Amino acid sequence: MAKRERLGDWLQPHPHGIYVAPADAWIDPSEPSPRALVTHGHADHARGGHDRVWATPETLAIMDARYGPQTGEPVAYGETIRLGEVEVGFVPAGHVLGSAQIVLDYRGERVVVSGDYKRRPDPTCAGFEPVKCDVFVTEATFALPVFRHPDTGDEIDKLIARLHANPDRCVVVGAYALGKAQRVICELRDRGHHAPIYIHGALQRLCDLYEELGVRLGELIPATGVAKKEIAGHVVMCPPSALNDRWSRRLPDPITAMASGWMRVRQRARQKNVELPLILSDHADWDELTTTLIEIAPREVWVTHGREEALVHWCEQRQIKARALALVGFEDEDD
Predict the structure, then answer these.
(1) Is 238 buried (19+), middle (13-18) or exposed (0-12) by CB count in 10 A?
(2) Which end of the chain is flanked by fewer CB atoms within 10 Å, N or C?
(3) What class, spelled out in words, does domain 11-146+283-324 have in CATH?
(4) Between 234 and 6, where is the model more confident?
(5) pTM for the complete prediction?
(6) Which listed CATH number (3.40.50.12650, 3.40.350.10, 3.40.430.10, 3.90.25.10) goes with 152-278?
């Protein structure tokens, strides 16, 4: 067997995805591909139009709901399949429902492509599982030391306290339709808020799907067309784009909130006219990223989707070989 020149030389990063040559498959391709391995359902990782898709059953269900029926091959957590010469496994990433790290074993070398991940407990999805490997491909959405996310319960308590202090108003929370909205709802339930929650129509389909997949959200009521006096004193969930449009102005003197890791940046909150910033992210913060790298101890780190330079520098300071990948992605934390 010829000796390979470098770790992971059987993977070929391209702007539109990572090509796994001995499996003849792409990971999270942003263009239609014959064979796609998909980490999770957000639009910068999943899209329609692939000939065949391998993903967790939950991710395939999300892709069906968002892009139409997929020619999908479900792979459960802990299950291993073989594509060409590569053993492929899916391990929880803790990002959103169904999110997975893709574990690739080829000729004695292991590469883990983590997709997006977080280390904090989330009632809507399986928690991140660290996997020892030779090469770890990590995201870097919040890869700057300034990003240290506060306690989740404290942020939810801020939301509940503001609601109770303003019984004649509502708190309208901007949250992405896949993952974040359902997490906020479940976190509210876990903190004892069992009142009905009103939702924007754009959230209905995925909230229904989460329920079908076993995530209990409690009583949700469509907000459109409901009298202002009925919504007063309640939480209203909507996509971020609806926070400042005509839809939100129909609500009873709404207190605008947004759930996002970017709410750590005050200027972003001001730009979006957010009265109650909730620092709640589905991505690892700086400490979680670096702790993960220490725990996994890969021989090499590939960094993508975010503040790549800072994390590469952190690795190099610790004699860990690292490089940035120029993959296409969104700066925002979800879609």
Answers:
(1) buried
(2) N
(3) alpha beta
(4) 234
(5) 0.94
(6) 3.40.50.12650
